[in-house]
Design goal:
Elements (H helix, E strand, L loop, with lengths): L8 H11 L6 H5 L1 H7 L14 E7 L6 E4 L2 E2 L1 E5 L2 E7 L7 E8 L7 E7 L6 E4 L10 H18 L19 E4 L4 E4 L2 E2 L6 E4 L5 E3 L4 E9 L3 E7 L4 E11 L6 E2 L4 E5 L9 E8 L2 E3 L8
Parallel strand pairs: 8-10
Antiparallel strand pairs: 1-5, 2-3, 2-6, 4-5, 6-7, 9-12, 10-11, 12-19, 13-18, 14-15, 14-17, 15-16, 16-18, 16-19, 19-20
Length: 293
């Protein structure tokens, strides 16, 4: 193996030891998470908070370990020198102690790796609106329940090959009009926190794929309007909503920068914009952790 300067510092140190035929000290991997968090070339950025991503070093192993959070499989990246589990943390997660289970080889007992979820306070917005804009009619409620059941199967996708790149491009240029995690309270009733990044852009602005992947699902949904889901492998999914046009079909293979559709104002919105979400191991996480700037 070559000691490439493009590799993060902690990985270059491990490669030099391995090339010399020496065992890689366990202590080197104990420092991996902190080094990765500070390294601007490592994606996604480490942020062990509700709605964030925890990067957990699994150490060296001849084959890719299998990791789970509960019964949900996790994306494991790296190589035999060092493997890393990427854990998407739900916005509803309680701060404090958490753990994952890791099997280093088929048939071996799982070991536990503990980590801590730090608290994070997201902005809260209280609004008073007409009651009809908050409460759904029985017909719309029934439609929403049907769509939610379908989308649960979409969000459970875990496929191979795993993503080769994890740094994403912003799918639409424009002002970020609503931040991830924003908590809205309508007429005193709390709603689910904002699970994506809103980008203001004119109707018709092309939406481009943030990363290579396969079109997993498309459709017109009650809240999200015209929507495209991409599967990037390993439980990493992205979603674009409120589109005025959809230019792809399920099963299409796309590369980063390919056109998926166009910005619009479909679904429950007040104006044209793109709602962009990133999901990792079935948890919506902050898209800002995957992009530069």
């Amino acid at each position: 193996m070559t000691d490439s300067p493009a590799l993060p510092l902690h990985r270059r140190a491990a490669l030099r030891l391995a090339a010399a035929g020496l065992l890689v000290p366990t202590a080197l991997f104990a420092r991996t998470a902190a080094l990765a968090a500070a390294d601007p070339s490592v994606w996604p950025r480490d942020s062990a908070v509700p709605g964030g991503v925890a990067r957990l070093s699994l150490g060296p192993a001849a084959a890719r370990p299998v990791a789970h959070s509960g019964d949900v499989p996790l994306l494991v990246v790296g190589d035999p020198i060092e493997w890393t589990a990427l854990v998407g943390i739900p916005l509803a997660a309680t701060p404090g102690a958490a753990e994952i289970a890791v099997a280093d080889a088929p048939g071996t007992a799982a070991r536990r790796i503990a980590y801590r979820i730090a608290p994070k306070r997201y902005v809260e917005q209280r609004l008073t609106v007409a009651p009809g804009t908050v409460d759904l009619s029985p017909q719309n409620q029934a439609r929403y329940e049907r769509e939610r059941a379908h989308l649960a199967t979409v969000m459970a996708s875990f496929t191979e090959p795993l993503p080769r790149e994890l740094q994403m491009r912003v799918p639409v240029p424009g002002r970020r009009s609503s931040s991830f995690g924003l908590r809205r309270v309508f007429n005193g009733q709390a709603r689910n926190p904002h699970s994506g990044m809103d980008i203001a852009a004119p109707t018709g602005t092309p939406m481009l794929a943030p990363l290579a992947g396969t079109v997993l699902d498309t459709g017109d949904y009650f809240f999200n309007g015209n929507t495209v889901w991409l599967d990037h492998g390993g439980g990493l999914l992205t979603m674009g909503c409120h589109l005025s046009a959809i230019d792809v079909r399920p099963g299409d293979r796309v590369q980063a920068g390919d056109r998926l559709g166009a910005v619009g104002a479909t679904g429950r919105v007040t104006g044209p914009h793109l709602h962009w979400s990133v999901m990792l191991n079935r948890a919506m996480v902050d898209p800002a952790l995957f992009i530069a700037g």
